[in-house]
Amino acid sequence: MVSNVIGALAAAGAAIAAWLTTMNHSDLTQWALILAGIGGVFVAKGSVILAIAESRPYAPQDGVPELERRLSALENRLSARNSGVVERIEQLEAEIARLRVRG
């Protein structure tokens, strides 16, 4: 959870840097991208930690097929969350590029 909070704060910093770039005509795009990247890494890390915490602890009586199914489900959740983070970073980059062209 702490990792997700750090990621959210970094993403908010990226949004503020992008806003300041448009308001003050100063180029803070690099900082916005750095903060967005940091935010993405921490959100992905927090998502992995939460996914692991949400799954039941390993019990020796579980069979191999059950363990494989749970591992596959975890992999699918992580892949979906990672895709979401990548998509959001691409949106932020496109928005920053659009703002640069307008400004």
What would you say this structure looks like, in words?
Residues 75-102 form a coiled coil. The chain is mainly alpha-helical and 103 residues long. It has helices spanning 2-24, 29-54, 64-102. The protein is elongated.
Largest sheet geometry: none
Order of helices and strands: HHH
> What is the C-alpha radius of gyration, as a whole number of Å?
18 Å
Q: Would you report the number of β strands?
A: 0
The best one-word shape is elongated
Q: Which structural category fits the helices and strands?
A: mainly alpha
Q: Distance between the terminal alpha carbons, to the nearest Å? A: 37 Å
Overall residue-averaged pLDDT value:
78
User: Approximately what portion of the residues adopt beta-strand conformation?
Assistant: under 5%
Low-pLDDT parts are none
Helix content: over 70%
What's the helix count? 3
